[in-house]
Amino acid sequence: MVGERGWCLVTTDSRIRRNKLEKEAVRVNNVRMFYFSRNQLSGKEMGQALKKALPKMEELAQNQPAPFTASIGNGDVTLRDTFDDSEDRE
Question: What pLDDT does residue 42 have?
């Protein structure tokens, strides 16, 4: 539903990008996924990181076609996977 509605997924589960089935679900469903590079952050720390990262997240979501994964760390956003290569697919 996230990809279908054009929403962005924000998660603390960075393992999604390493799990073959979950990664394929992101690709097939055309999801824009942002994840925290550190999942031990408190709620307050996550809020602060999101506040700093939001302009970069918006820019990436508007300019980078789905699907993709990007990490959020210290207010910075880094594009990690655009699913351009098919080497991980079977």
Answer: 87
In a domain, 85, yes or no: no
Cα(39)–Cα(30) distance, integer angstroms: 24
Which residues, in sequence order, are CB contacts of 29 under 8 Å at separation 6+?
2, 3, 4, 67
Residue 39 has pLDDT above 50, yes or no: yes
pTM (two decimals): 0.86
Count: domains in the chain: 1
In a domain, 65, yes or no: yes
pLDDT tens for residues 10-26? 999 888 888 999 999 99
Residue 6 one-letter amino acid: G
- Which range marks the domain in which residue 33 is found? 8-80
* Cβ(72)–Cβ(53) below 8 Å: yes
* Angle, alpha carbons 20-84-86 (nearest 5°): 50
